[in-house]
């Protein structure tokens, strides 16, 4: 299965972001899965920026663009948006199938109340409900950014059948942050024997370093900090082989504790 991660920095202009996404996707062909970052519809902006005012419904212009592009490419596209509600918005991933239909939504469970920031003051958390979907021969589990710091999230996705994790993110830059990002992505791959495909926002505010790790935790492709496409071939056979050699999931004894 051919995968492409689109690393880009979103702005506070939703229309400009859509134009930029369309430009980035235009040359792609042959992909089965395309992943864009968290909040690529509209950046978080400063802490006093009203995300409720810019949030969109699931039939709004952002999802409409992704639907058209997924249908044109014949690929599944996963991307992050702020989803309108009657109160605080959700931080939502939408997965558009190759037919252009909405295949899945995942509303971020773990809001980023950490490193001196409180995402929960601006957004609402989704229900604790793991989301997986089929993409080609693989079952893909969805998580967003800060979810990566919670290993139980990966376990829940694996128990729901995931053979790959897709992780859109806006991983804020700072001391230790790239090291944490790379280490946590590799750890989630190793402990769950899954592929991990992480698309982060780049630019000065975010860490970039979108990457693909195989089920052994080896980074097979990685971006730097700017605008970049990362392409890799991932296969379910690699998951099966790693689980035969390293059957740690089958050897678990603590699932019910």
From TrEMBL:
<dbReference type="InterPro" id="IPR001110">
    <property type="entry name" value="UPF0012_CS"/>
</dbReference>
<dbReference type="InterPro" id="IPR036526">
    <property type="entry name" value="C-N_Hydrolase_sf"/>
</dbReference>
<feature type="domain" description="CN hydrolase">
    <location>
        <begin position="1"/>
        <end position="236"/>
    </location>
</feature>
<dbReference type="GO" id="GO:0016787">
    <property type="term" value="F:hydrolase activity"/>
</dbReference>
<dbReference type="Pfam" id="PF00795">
    <property type="entry name" value="CN_hydrolase"/>
</dbReference>
<keyword id="KW-0378">Hydrolase</keyword>
<protein>
    <submittedName>
        <fullName>Carbon-nitrogen hydrolase family protein</fullName>
    </submittedName>
</protein>
<comment type="similarity">
    <text>Belongs to the carbon-nitrogen hydrolase superfamily. NIT1/NIT2 family.</text>
</comment>
<dbReference type="InterPro" id="IPR003010">
    <property type="entry name" value="C-N_Hydrolase"/>
</dbReference>
